[in-house]
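Bug #77: duplicate submission created two jobs. Keeping one. Sequence:
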Amino acid sequence: MNIKARMYWCLMCCAFLTLPLPAVAKEIPYPIRPLRLIVPFAPGGSADVPARLLANALTNQMGQQIVVDNRSGAGGIIAAETVAKAQADGYTILLGSIGMLTIIPNLKKSLSYNPDIDFLPVSMLSATPTIIVVHPKLGVQSVRELISLANSKPGAISFGSSGTGSSTHLSGELFKSMAKVDLAHVPYKGAALAVLDLVSGQILLGFDTLASLAHVRSGRLKALAISTSNRSVLLPDVPTVAESGVPGYETSSWNGVMLPASTSKEIANRLYMEIVKAIAIPDVRDRMQANGNTPRSSTPLEFKKFIGEERMRWGKLIKEANIQVE
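Kept job's structure:
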């Protein structure tokens, strides 16, 4: 090889060595600042408790503060709007609920958010059963006795709920449909008012969350059955609705974690793994259960499928019962 050729190859090698190396894949630095968890319920409520337990656990695990931001009102619409419009950077998280994701879309023709397009499901968090409770003066001791009394007096027995289209209302409508009984619905502006009238005997029947547990334990109310497929650890002697004469009956008020739709899959997966880890903490599980919430987790795909199935289920009932909201 002559001198010119040698010089040419030396120059080519030097040029090659100065080329930039390919970027090495590395983990996204997330999170690097505090996060905000938007909760569609007032502070202190039964669904607010698991949200705060999760926020505390994630704060410890992820090294950044998770700030709980309560945006109650309009059945969760306000909270949903907030997150739907937020930056998709993983720093604004939504506690999605049964109402905003499955019931309201079946009741309102137009919404300011689209539950399928605007959100990315991450994982379920918890579920809360409904209990059928009665005032003692109704004089029934079981679901079978309630059905018998309702059949003897069609439309005479009223049940209260936290409002038209609420999960407690639909629990009652599902019972009416499956037990084939005629009950009158009395909507209230919130669960607390419904329970107040139930305890005072203004209404005699309610489909309530475990928030009324204290009244059951005091004897002011009688728990006839619980809505889930398994009995509650808080009321082990109270049978399920299914084993009380209405086979197949099952419902609960649930919630889970969502992100704005265009959030990266890497961030969503990181958050999912942290949620699974948080729910597995014994203290977190115990405190959720003590508050009447059953801890649950699911993969993003499982959660997405579950939301779709729930929306179809409640949509069918809403149509059959001709439930409408103003």
